[in-house]
Amino acid sequence: MTTTERTPILSLRQIRKSYGPLEVLHGVDLDVYAGEVVALLGENGAGKSTLSNIISGTVQPSSGEMTWQGAPYSPASPRAAMDAGVGMIHQELKLLPQLSIAENVFVGRYLMKGGRIDRPAMEERAHAGLRRLGLEISPRRLVEGLSTANQQLIEIAKALTLNAKLLILDEPTAALGGEETQLLFRQIERLKAEGVGIIYISHRLEEIRQVSDRIVVMRDGAKVQEFDRGDVPIRTIVEAMVGRSLERMFPTIPEATDQVTLEVRGLTSAAGSFRDINFAVKKGEVFGIAGLVGAGRTELVRAITGADPISGGEVRLHGKTITPRSPIDAIRNGIVLVPEDRKLQGVILDHSIAENIGYPNLREIARNGWLNARRLNSFADEYIARFGVKGRGQQNAGELSGGNQQKVVLAKWLARKPQVVVLDEPTRGIDVGARSSIYELIMDLAREGVTVIVVSSDLEEVLGVSSRIMVMAQGKQAGILDRDAANDVSIMELATI
Hints:
This protein is an alpha/beta fold.
């Protein structure tokens, strides 16, 4: 039966949203049917999050109408949406690690019996929700220590205990590896078979082709295109998202010099996450690090930049042993890390863009120990313009899209003019257009003689930006591939040793 012959469970008509004089959604129409996955795509700032927040009751529309299962729908809060059967699973997991799975599933709405918390009933219902997703795990277990994939499934189980008939999944695979992603996809197929409708938001376009039944593309607050199938060529999707022909995603990689800037010799983690790592990176080179989740990539670059302790080995800069013992050691030596979790480790969300850019650069901005607001704003404005941040200096960083937050993190560190820049998952959760500008920035750094190390779970990305790639497997250095020898197959062969 085609969608035109069925009745949608959710229908949006001419949804608009304004903040003061600025309209961010321009009359959006959307239908979602039972048992289907609708991919909602667009660049950061396209309006996806605002629309999702309206559907899930977090934000109220300025005008327009919604119907849910044939009746008028206007949830005043996320709880009202959940009570109606609409749940949203956010990219940032919000589970409480010190509570059990059952307690997390029912947090804020504990089941009661005779004036007491009915733990047996909570555990039984939580277990039923977990089994529905194919997760055989005790609901009494603490969330602490569970894999990201399992935590993601617990978030979904949390919505299913309220008999959710529509799930909004926001970047559900952003922190997952390939095997975990396929597990999630299998559970999505199970939910579809049970009649659950799903709105799926992701910047990983290859997985959109695997999981979606229809694709809706947004741009600048409007729905600009809809595809009635999921297996649409990626180039076609990208061009719809950015509104122009995209000839090439990755820029030309510049030639590195013969001068070695950074050397890692026999580096071994104190926690056992990696051991005996050896490599050298040249001035102006982009050096990629690939491997499966758990291979030790992030732990390695954190150790190189002084954030994690080591039990052996050394880090050398221009032939001199510097082996940072803290991040400040690394920073003083001209080595900076752009971390994988920009919200927790990269920016202070409730501080302004100008403040975020200024914090690592106070020595340059402040005069005689005094910080002048005008000088801070002038300094920040220079880098906001240079890095194309779509925001004002006095705007809170938490109000920015993921891509613009990442640009703020890059701006604050690159303002220090470092010799070595380490980028851990530089485009995670970032749209195609913003990715392209970050790739250009990486190549600009290399052309200026900066040594760049890029850690990425995205094989296409690490292949597209790197002149050489080191592959890690189970904490070991599996091999280093030159660009002409590196491809998906050669990397995966080493990563699965």
